[in-house]
Specification:
heterodimer; A: alpha+beta; Nuclear Transport Factor 2, Chain: A; six-stranded mixed sheet; 10 helices; B: alpha+beta; globular
Chain lengths: 298, 366
């Protein structure tokens, strides 16, 4: 696809929804057939999408844009990582969007709000937040063999990134931390003073916290499997990568075993082939609404 | 498998819905790109015809336009019933709009083929948003809003739909309405079924069990290797159940949507959907009944498949095991997006509520 116009109009329209309540502009960019996924709920059409936005604006107010990073792969897929400070909140929150567009119109938006930072910002808890948080789409996970057998095929960054992309080897190692639990990579692919923004983490923490986070999650999930969905790189931002992925696993609760899916978005900043900064976004309220009978995973 | 060929090049210029604004879809500009003999002059191609007549009937609620766009005698097959007159099409449309007054139909794609004798086949994938304000085929009103995907396969000739197969993901819809698929099926099973429907589903079951596909060779306008790919897809998955061969059919990050909220990315998850679903009909046989192929952009193709499955229902689920041993028939449609010879995205649609309802009613009755 050849992009004919500067993409900034698309990104400005999306952000103006949160910062100005400008619904008309974003509506004018969204195709009639566009989908807007937020909180694992997919809204189609003006009525559903407007309802989603007004719900957010009513509860959080307008937001100040604290910081934004945009990656654009040049063929219609972009990722936006934004830090927003809601008027009704005390502290900034993180949101990340994966957007499919053609510079003129938007076909698809997949938005993840880090609800742990939101809870802190609004000084509320999951129960209260879940009363107004959208209800996720029905999801039926069909169980499967999660093992990596010698003759089976599994996605990894190199299999979906263009051959000329930078940092592929580092990303392969990053993926192995999650998919193969190869924890020693944490020491080798992160800079010593790397800042890690885990879900709910305001200030950024160290690789030690990342180690704790990975081991805690993988210890909680039995038969876990990580699946890559999308990797976005930007020729003009060669040190940054956005990844959409999920991890599935079994959670035991009493005599019951439930298979769950955690939808995640990662934004990595690399320097000298090592990760200098990492953001991991997860909507734990949407997760808890999708799997209501299970305790939180984090 | 090549993704483009001379025939596909000839199809370029026919409306492609994906990036079109609604304004453009409803007010197409430019010359006619297909002859469309027998169709109204206003339509520039078969996609335009399907998109605009659907909009008029459903979005503008001009239900009577069915008289303009359906033949007086028009067989319509669903897994839940059969009708063959435009009068019944109008009545059913009116009932659905009464139950879901704000129902909107968002056209996602129209994959088409020119069959012969000025006859076109269209496979229209639609996302509908609808609020259940009055009693419906699933029971009393719930007041909840739901989303549902439909694939409507139509044979179009002389400006009219003359034959239709309608597949709707009703199990996904009723879950959003707050109704369990089994409760919806029990409610639906209270309605009498027609002799025509019973006769059709029995004959279709026997046809598929005998592996008599409606399509046994590459039809006109469909490349041999595209037909071969789809035949392999049907045979590998539904007949042979060789799930490690999915790597030959799907990309590593292929996205698949199946009825009832089954959504996954990647080969293990796809194998999971197929394994778990087919385990309830382990002796299943499937037939390829129609295929249409159109280009999507310059590097991809879209394929529409209508297929049928028949076998013996076998469930260990406490709720459904009472039906084990009964015959099961499925009418299904799949849209595939192909890139570099493999599936990048799949949408499969069938009606699991009607499937359960038919089990309750012991249909097909052999």
């Amino acid at each position: 696809m050849t992009l004919t116009k500067d993409n900034s109009a698309i990104f400005d329209a999306l952000l103006a929804l949160f910062t100005k309540g400008d619904m008309l502009t974003v509506r004018s960019k969204l195709l009639h057939s566009a989908s807007w996924q937020q909180a694992l709920f997919t809204a189609y059409g003006e009525s559903q999408q407007s309802r989603l936005w007004i719900n957010w604006l009513n509860r959080c107010g307008l937001s100040d844009l604290v910081e934004v990073r945009v990656l654009n792969n040049g063929s219609g897929n972009s990722a936006i990582l934004a830090e927003l400070k809601p008027q009704k909140g005390q502290t900034p929150i993180r949101v990340m969007l994966f957007v499919e567009h053609n510079s003129l119109n938007i076909k698809q938006v997949d938005l993840t709000i880090d609800t742990m930072t939101l809870k802190e910002s609004l000084d509320t808890n999951s129960d209260e937040l879940s009363t107004w948080w959208p209800s996720p789409d029905p999801l039926l996970i069909s169980d499967y063999d999660q093992q990596i057998h010698p003759q089976t095929s599994h996605a990894k960054p190199s299999s979906i990134m263009s051959s000329g992309a930078k940092n592929v080897q580092t990303l392969e190692s990053w993926w192995e931390i999650w998919q193969l639990m190869q924890l020693s990579h944490i020491q080798s692919i992160y800079q010593k003073n790397a800042k890690i923004y885990l879900p709910g983490e305001q200030q950024g923490t160290s690789t030690f916290a990342l180690f704790e986070h990975v081991t805690q999650l993988m210890n909680r999930l039995h038969r876990h499997y990580c699946q890559l969905e999308q990797v976005i790189t930007d020729p003009e931002e060669p040190g940054c990568v956005a990844v959409k992925w999920y991890v599935e696993g079994d959670i035991k609760s009493g005599r019951n075993v439930s298979r769950v899916r955690l939808n995640l978005m990662s934004f990595l900043e690399l320097s000298d082939d090592k990760i200098a900064k990492e953001y991991l976004l997860f909507d734990d309220v949407a997760y808890q609404k999708q799997f209501p009978d299970l305790a939180a995973v984090f | 498998m090549t993704d483009t060929n001379a025939n596909m090049q000839a199809n370029k210029g026919v409306t492609q819905v994906y990036w079109k604004t609604l304004e453009h879809l409803l007010n197409p500009t430019g010359d006619k790109v297909q002859d469309l003999l027998g169709f109204d002059d206003e339509f520039v191609d078969i996609v335009d015809y399907i998109i605009r007549i659907t909009h008029r009937i459903w979005e503008q609620k001009d239900i009577g336009r069915c008289y303009d766009y359906y033949a007086d005698y028009c067989p319509v097959h669903t897994l839940g019933g059969y009708c063959d007159s435009v009068e019944v099409v109008v009545q059913n449309t009116l009932k659905t709009i009464a139950a879901f007054p704000d129902r909107s139909l968002i056209g996602e794609n129209v994959i088409w083929s020119y069959d012969e004798d000025e006859t076109y086949y269209s496979s229209h994938r639609i996302t509908s948003i609808m609020t259940n304000k009055n009693a419906s085929e699933f029971g009393p009103a719930t007041g909840n809003t739901g989303r549902v995907m439909t694939i409507a396969d139509c044979v179009c000739k002389d400006n009219r739909i003359v034959y239709e197969w309608l597949m709707r993901d009703n199990s996904f819809l009723v879950k959003q309405l707050g109704i369990s698929p089994f409760d919806a099926a029990k409610f639906q099973a209270q309605q009498p079924i027609s002799e025509e429907f019973a006769s059709w589903i029995a004959s279709e079951y026997k046809r598929v069990r005998a592996r008599k596909a409606m399509l046994t060779a590459s039809p006109k306008g469909v490349e041999e290797d595209h037909f071969g790919f789809v035949s392999k897809w049907v045979d590998t998955i539904f007949n042979q159940k060789n799930f490690n061969q999915l790597a030959q059919l799907y990309h590593l990050t292929a996205k698949v949507q199946w009825p009832g909220g089954r959504r996954t990315t990647g080969l293990p998850g796809i194998a999971g959907i197929l394994t778990q679903w087919l385990a309830q009909c382990p002796d299943s046989r499937a037939t390829l009944d129609h295929i249409a192929v159109v280009p999507f952009g310059s590097e991809r193709i879209d394929i529409a498949i209508r297929w049928s499955l028949a076998g013996t229902f076998s469930s260990r689920d406490a709720q459904y095991s009472q039906f084990s041993g009964q015959a099961l028939f499925l009418l299904a449609a799949t849209h595939l997006r192909i890139h570099q010879g493999k599936i990048e995205q799949e949408w499969t649609v069938f009606d699991e509520v009607s499937m359960l309802s038919n089990l309750i009613l012991n249909q097909p009755s052999l």
